[in-house]
Amino acid sequence: MLKIGYKLSSEEHQPQNLIAQAQRAEQCGFSFAMISDHFHPWIGAQGQSPFVWPVIGAIAQVTSKLKLGTAVTCPTMRIHPGIIAQAAATVASMMPGRFILGLGAGENLNEHIFGHRWPPVRVRHAMLKEAVEIIRLLWSGKQENFSGEYYDVENARLYTLPDTLPPIALAASGSNAAELAAEIGDGFVGTTPDAEVIDVFNRSGGSGKPRYGELTVCWAENQTQAEETAYKLWPISGLNGPLMSELALPAYFEQAATMIDKTAVAKAVICGPDPERHWQAIQEYARAGYDHVFVHQVGPDQDGFFQFYERKILPRL
Question: Which of 5, 54, 63, 201 is the most exposed place for a label (fewest CB within 10 A)?
Fold first, then answer.
C-alpha cells in the first residue's frame, strides 16, 4: 500500500517551525516524515540550516505515531560514522519503531567545510560503504575496534541502544548507487520517479525493501503565485547531473540557477492548487516502483499546504 509522507525542509525553516510542522503532519494523517540534514542551504534565499539531531530529538517528544527519517545524512566527512551511529541509536531509543536512518554519499556543499578534499564519486561510495559497516558494528552494543581504509575506531562501545535497531535507507540517483543501496541498505531513497534505477535496486537485492521517493511541490492559492515562490526558493529543481553534488557554496548554486528560467522550474515542481496534478505526480512515483512518497512543500505557506493535502489528497488513500 502506498504511503504518503511529509518533507521537513531544514534549508527553509527554523527549528521550532520544523517541530511544529512535524506535529501538524501527524495530525493531518501523514504516515511518516523525512527531514533534510544540511550544513548550508542550497541557496541563500532559503535562509536556514539547523543541526538536525536536536530537532529530531524534539520531534520525538511532540509526536507519538509519526515515523521519521533523515533524508539524508552523510556519515563520511563532516561527521564521523561512529557519531552518527550513536546519534541514530539515541533517537531510535526515544521513538521506538519510528526512526529511519537515511544515509547518502553527500554533497560538496555540506562536506567540504572542514578542509577535506571532496573525493570522486567512486571514493565517496567506498567511504559510505565503510561508514555503514561501522554503524552496524557499533550497534552490536559490544566494545569494538575497526581499522579500515578511511576510518578507525578504537575501543568504542554504545551503551544506549534501542530494543529494535532502526533500518538504514540509502539514497541513490544512478545505477551504481542503487546497487550499493541494495547491497548494504534496508531501503532506498530517491528524488525522481526513475523506474530504471528502482529496477536496478530491486534486481540487486532490494526487492521487498521500502522505497522512499521525494516529490517537490509548491501549493498556493493560484498558479502564478506558486510558480513565483518555487522559482525564488527552489530554482535548483531545474539543475541535474553532477552539479548537485559537486558545487561547493550556496553562491555557486545561485549562479547556476541564473541559467534556469521560471518555466523550467514550473515543469520540475508541481505548482498550484489543482489536486489532480498533485495526485498524478504521486502516482507517477508509485508507477516507478516507490511504495513511500514524501512531499516537499516549497515556501512559507505550510499551513495552506497541510489544509489542501488534508482535504484533497490524503483522503484518496
Answer: 54
CA distance 273 to 73: 32
- Structural contact between residues 248 and 118, judged by C-beta atoms closer than 8 angstroms: yes
Assigned C-alpha cell, 126? 567506498
Instruction: For residue 59, give the amino acid letter.
Output: I
What does the DSSP assignment read for 156-220? Answer: E------SSPPPEEEE-SSHHHHHHHHHH-SEEEESS--HHHHHHHIIIIITTS-EEEEEEEE--
C-alpha cell at 131: 561508514
Catalytic residue flag (residue 112): no
What is the arithmetic mean of pLDDT over 63-84?
A: 98
pTM reported for the whole predicted model: 0.98
The predicted-structure confidence for 11-55, as pLDDT tens digits, reads as follows 999 999 999 999 999 999 999 999 999 999 999 999 999 999 999
CA angle 262, 264, 270 (to 5 degrees): 90
Phi, psi of 84 (to 5 degrees): -65, -40
Superfamily name with CATH number, domain 3-316? Luciferase-like domain (3.20.20.30)
Q: Domain map of the chain by residue range?
A: 3-316
Write the burial class of residue 207 (CB in 10 Å: 0-12 exposed, 13-18 middle, 19+ buried). exposed
Among 107, 111, 130, 228, which one carries the catalytic annotation? 107
Region of 272 on the Ramachandran plot (φ > 0 left; ψ -120 to 50 alpha; else beta): left
CA-to-CA dists, residue 284 to 26, 202, 266, 270, 289, angstroms: 24, 18, 17, 12, 9
38 is catalytic: yes
Q: Tell me the pairing of strands 152-156 and 144-147.
A: antiparallel
Contact 41, 8 (CB under 8 A): no
**pLDDT, tens digit, 9 for 90 and up, residues 198-246:** 999 999 999 999 999 999 999 999 999 999 999 999 999 999 888 999 9
Catalytic residue among 11, 12, 13, 38: 38
